[in-house]
Amino acid sequence: MKSFSRKFILLPAAVLAFASVYAQDSSTGQVFIVPVDAEGSVMEDAKVEMTRTSDDTFQASGVSLDYGFYIRGYDPTSDLGNDYGMPSWAVSPAVIGWLNPVNGTSPRYAAVPESGVYDISFYSREDTGYSVSMFELKYNSAPDEPTYPDAIYLVPVSGEKIRIEGSGGVYSATVTLPSSFKITYEPSYSYEAFIFGPAESESSVVLEPGEAVELKYATNTSATFSYDTSAPRDSENHVLISVDLSSPTYTVTVTSGIETGVGEVSAAADNTTEAVYDLYGRRLGSAENLNPGIYVVRTASGTNSKILVR
């Protein structure tokens, strides 16, 4: 078994073979990083050979890239090779510090988020266990620094994917949730290398309002999430969903019935504050001594409203 770095899923190692007609064995195959220029044309004179590791994966350190690159598999015994690009559905520029998909039939090069010096690891299709090969991109100046995707996705089995942006590993948006979905950082429903599944369940999980559910990377990836059909929503059927990857325990939280102001309630309604949540769906101890910001207040009668603390 082989472990990808930084919480990556354990996947079976195998003899390297490229996902093309150009099969190479572990004694002859070579892999190169081939940079591209501003027009996306390959820069043959700047290509860098990757170093084979003991488990037949490949690495290259200190590679200067301005725009992006292809990964080239080459067999010197037959003089045949193949360039790997990113699938059209993959996030571009490439995600830093997490796995990115490539295959031998995609014409799109792997774009980098900014000009710089990078460390790159490449895993063949046989190493990943999927129909795509993958690579990991890190900043050479800070290879061990935690990094997070620019967005995560709520991906239903069919229908429109929902992109939720964030920063620092925290993502939040007010949306209409699909009836069931998975949480990913690449907009793909099927590849478990990109999925955050529920930590405690292999089956579907129903999210309850205000209750955080622990996630784990590439764990219980066949499970889907849904939201309690009887739980309240706002007047437009929206809820606030938050995903937090910034702490060792990843979580997803849904806060129901988010309104833009104080909603109308009947005279008989019990408006006693039952709970207070921040906009990440985290339940707070009380409504007293809150820091400046926007909060969601849930009353005993079940109504929810936003408050602004200055």
- Contiguous uncertain segments of 5+ residues: 1-26, 259-269
Radius of gyration, in Å, reads: 23 Å
- Could you give the distance between the termini? 54 Å
Which H/E pattern describes the elements?
Answer: EEEEEEEEEEEHEEEEEEEEEEEEEEE
Strand order within the widest beta sheet: 13-14-15-21-22-19-17-16
What does this structure look like?
The relative contact order is 0.11. Helices cover 1% and strands 40% of the residues. β13 and β14 form a beta hairpin. With 310 residues, it is mainly beta. It is elongated. It has an eight-stranded antiparallel barrel. Strands 3, 4, 7, 8 and 10 form a five-stranded antiparallel sheet that branches. It has a five-stranded antiparallel sheet with strand order 5-6-11-12-9. It has one helix spanning 125-128, and strands at residues 2-3, 10-11, 30-36, 48-49, 51-52, 58-65, 68-75, 80-84, 99-102, 110-111, 116-123, 133-139, 151-155, 162-167, 170-175, 182-184, 195-198, 205-207, 213-217, 225-227, 239-244, 250-255, 273-278, 283-284, 293-299, 304-309. It starts with a strand and ends with a strand.
